[in-house]
Write a structure and sequence with these properties.
Length: about 675
């Protein structure tokens, strides 16, 4: 197979990742010798997360846009079948393996244990995931027991840490669409496949404006496929139209818009014809995608764990002098100090409980405020539905004479339902931007500021107690690196770090805009809070149930009064309004519970981090007392080991600084 581009960018990123993993491993060795098991556990989790991190690229596209052909062209092999009909409601994840295999994952069932994934022979995949011609599509999708299919393949692109996620179509079925939306939060890049023959249809525009952009995806890759099908004289006109429509919807304007011939690229790769491949436009896309993943996304995947490693280095540089001084202190005096510290330690436990209760109250207040805001939104939306429906001009022709009215009524119902869905989504996005997100950001900032005051007092008391026990004051190490992404941490972030706070959302939790820190981490949770709420209304309005009702009304002559089209719009609007009224309580509860659940993750980390700060004092004193019981010879040996460890930590820190600088420089040069 012909290789499109060199993978130097991916290889350089893997090399930087390997350096970071090595530094984390060396730091694990340091904290292990210091007998700090909780910190060792957090570092091990950090290492595992960095090692397992991959670039997740989701490919979206409506039916008949050439999505499967494009993915095959990207991978350089015909892996995904380009079916002529919509086929499956599950995600396909294409990953690296030196042997070909397929793993089918089952959906979670309420009250039942999750079934183990099923190994599926490659040549039998279609039997499990493809909807057969004689099956009802909606029933097949809703009753499918499968969640996703993992395809493992010996592909060069995937070997470099890239996972291709083939999503269900965007406009084929609501269940398919919901499956796709659930993935959107965690992917690194979005590629939207369009067709030059029908460029950027209204439904595609609604997906971009109402889903992708509101969820923070500012770097959408627009792939305009089948440029080869456009007449030569019309190509420039099509390109200009695409740039006009799409450039404002992606951060780097025309640099994120590509005109390609996916089938030509696939044939060029398979046949080894370089000229055909270059003409296809795919190599330019692959180069830009590699730059984006390895620099902009890769920067986050290295600098965020680097921040956590810096935090660990800071703590070790504090604890080593404390241990040294305690080892040099008379055992009777050390035991006296530790005994005197028991009451302050109990007070710290009380303060810990007070902070957690305060946070619980703040979370409840946030939930209540969001509930009120959501209730107002639903209340104000109901009267808008009727107005929007009545103002819409139906395009479907309603035929009644000498023919069965059902098909034309069904077409009209589907049309107005689709239109109202798009309008509801637009209303929701507008509310999300103007009302919900500002409220959540304000609450999150208030929580951060309130708890930072509490955490500052807490860590001051912790450090004072450490001073009283160890007899040495060690200033906190400045870990700021200015504009390269690693910075000073607040008292609250120190507490979160003690609990492995980075792990609350994984490497990608502060994805959008390459931001760092607790406030940004909380902001990045917003898309997880708001995704799918509008589905409560939309999924409850089923054209299949509306059509028989409208046909029955037609038979009795009730639809003819005032015009059939108007009556259809009235009935659909009525159904939407009823559904919204019936689900308002559920929507409010869902939004409020989502807010509470996400913020409770932070609360649990705070509780764990405060406990870790207290436990660290006890652990350190007990470690020293245990060493002293072994005799002076072992104490002298331990003191010598501490000198070696601080030298090791300094080397780790210097090499980490070098890595951070390399990542920062490579990011600014691209």
């Amino acid at each position: 197979m012909l290789q499109t581009i060199n993978y130097k960018g991916y290889e350089e990123f893997k090399e930087k990742t390997s350096i970071l993993v090595n530094l984390i491993e060396r730091q694990i060795g340091v904290v292990r010798l210091l007998n700090q098991p909780e910190r060792e556990t957090n570092l091990q989790l950090l290492k595992d997360l960095v090692q397992s991190s991959s670039f997740k690229v989701m490919v979206l596209g409506e039916f008949k846009r050439g999505k499967s052909t494009f993915i095959n062209a990207l991978l350089g092999e015909e892996i995904l079948p380009a079916y002529s009909t919509p086929t499956t409601a599950i995600i396909n994840e294409v990953k690296w393996s030196d042997t070909k295999s397929a793993l089918l994952h089952f959906n979670k069932s309420d009250g039942k244990s999750l079934q183990q994934p099923l190994n599926v022979p490659i040549d039998q995949i279609e039997e499990y995931v493809v909807i057969k011609d004689d099956e009802n599509e909606s029933e097949a999708i809703n009753e499918s027991p499968y969640e996703k299919l993992e395809l493992f393949w010996p592909l060069e692109l995937c070997k470099n840490g890239v996972e291709i996620i083939d999503s269900p179509g965007l406009n084929e079925h609501k269940t398919r669409q919901q499956v796709t939306e659930n993935y959107l939060i965690n992917v690194d890049a979005i590629i939207l496949v369009l067709s030059c023959e029908q460029l950027f249809a209204r439904s595609e525009q609604e997906v971009v404006d109402n889903k992708l952009i509101p969820m923070g995806h500012e770097d959408i890759f627009f792939v305009c496929n089948r440029i080869n099908m456009i007449r030569k004289n019309d190509i420039e006109k099509v390109k200009n139209f695409a740039i006009k429509k799409l450039s404002s919807r992606t951060r780097k304007d025309a640099k994120r818009i590509f005109f390609i011939n996916a089938l030509g690229a696939l044939d060029g790769k398979l046949d080894g014809v370089q000229e055909e491949l270059e003409k296809s436009g795919v190599p330019q896309l692959e180069t830009e995608l590699q730059n984006f993943l390895t620099n902009e996304r890769g920067r986050i995947k290295i600098l965020r764990p680097a921040q956590e490693l810096k935090n660990s280095i800071r703590e070790v540089r504090t604890s080593i002098p404390e241990q040294r001084n305690m080892l040099q202190t008379d055992v009777v005096e050390l035991e006296r100090r530790y005994a005197a510290a028991q009451e302050p330690l109990r007070n710290l436990e009380g303060k810990r409980l007070s902070i957690v209760r305060r946070l619980e109250n703040l979370i409840q207040e946030s939930k209540e405020q969001v509930n009120y805001k959501t209730k107002d939104f639903c209340r104000d939306l109901v009267p808008k539905i009727k107005t929007v429906a009545q103002d819409y001009e139906l395009e479907s022709e309603i035929k009644l004479l000498f023919t069965d009215p059902r098909p034309s009524i069904e077409a009209a119902v589907k049309e107005i339902v689709s239109y109202l869905e798009s309008k509801l989504e637009a209303e929701f996005v507008n509310w999300q931007n103007l009302e919900l997100e500002p409220l959540l950001e304000k609450r999150m900032e208030y929580i951060r500021d309130s708890l930072d005051v509490e955490a500052t007092e807490f860590v001051k008391r912790v450090d004072k107690l450490r001073l009283e026990i160890s007899g040495v004051s060690v200033s906190r190490v400045d870990v700021s690196k200015g504009d390269v992404g690693v910075r000073d941490v607040s008292a609250f972030e120190r507490v979160l770090s003690a609990a492995g706070g980075f792990l609350v959302g994984g490497i990608g939790s502060a994805t959008i805009g390459a931001r760092f820190g607790y406030q940004e981490m909380l902001k990045s949770l917003i898309p997880q809070l708001v995704i799918g709420i509008i589905g409560y209304v939309i999924l409850g309005v089923n054209p299949v149930t509306l059509v028989p009702m409208l046909v029955a009304a037609l038979v009795h002559g009730k639809l003819m009064e005032g015009g059939l089209g108007n009556k259809i719009k009235q009935e659909v609007a009525k159904k939407f309004s009823e559904q919204l009224n019936n689900t308002t309580v559920e929507i409010i509860e869902n939004v409020g519970n989502s807010v509470s659940a996400e913020l409770s993750k932070v609360k649990d980390l705070v509780d764990e981090g405060l406990g870790a700060e207290i436990q660290n004092i006890r652990q350190q004193v007990n470690n020293v007392l245990a060493e002293k019981q072994k005799g002076q010879k072992e104490v002298d040996k331990k003191l010598k080991q501490l000198d070696t460890l601080i030298q090791n930590v300094n080397r780790i820190d210097q090499e980490l600084d070098d890595l951070i600088s390399q990542v920062a420089i490579s990011g600014t040069n691209k």
